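We were asked to recover a plausible sequence for a given structure. The inputs and outputs are reproduced exactly as logged, with field labels preserved.

PROBLEM: sequence recovery
POSITIONS: 136
GIVEN STRUCTURE:
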């Protein structure tokens, strides 16, 4: 009986190529950082949570099982940690820097979402978190 493995690979690659969205997700990365408007926030710091979804064409990585054809979540985590170590007054600025670092390193990222939350914001209310979300 003839092998159909080659045909299956071609069919799968054709089905995946540009027709489906693929993403890597980093959900709930917790980092201590010194972002904030108030002096205490930049002195003492706060716990932050970062969640990221990065959209890219993963068909090559899915077919070839080749690490060089994907977006490395481990490397993305290191990029996030580097940018979070630089104090910002606004979460918006920190997210912009994270977005720039990721898209410079991985130009194949075609869209996504970055959510940055301050887990203990200095407000006189009880809440789970306050944050900023950027989608592109």
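RECOVERED SEQUENCE:
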């Amino acid at each position: 009986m003839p092998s159909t493995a080659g045909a299956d690979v071609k069919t799968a690659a054709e089905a995946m190529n540009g027709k489906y969205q693929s993403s890597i997700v980093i959900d709930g990365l917790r980092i201590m950082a010194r972002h904030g408007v108030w002096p205490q926030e930049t002195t003492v710091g706060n716990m932050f949570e970062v969640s990221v979804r990065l959209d890219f064409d993963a068909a090559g990585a899915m077919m070839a099982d080749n690490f060089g054809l994907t977006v490395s979540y481990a490397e993305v985590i290191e990029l996030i940690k580097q940018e979070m170590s630089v104090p910002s007054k606004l979460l918006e600025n920190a997210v912009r820097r994270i977005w720039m670092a990721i898209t410079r390193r991985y130009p194949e990222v075609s869209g996504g979402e970055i959510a940055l939350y301050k887990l203990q914001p200095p407000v006189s209310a009880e809440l789970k978190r306050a944050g900023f979300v950027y989608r592109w």
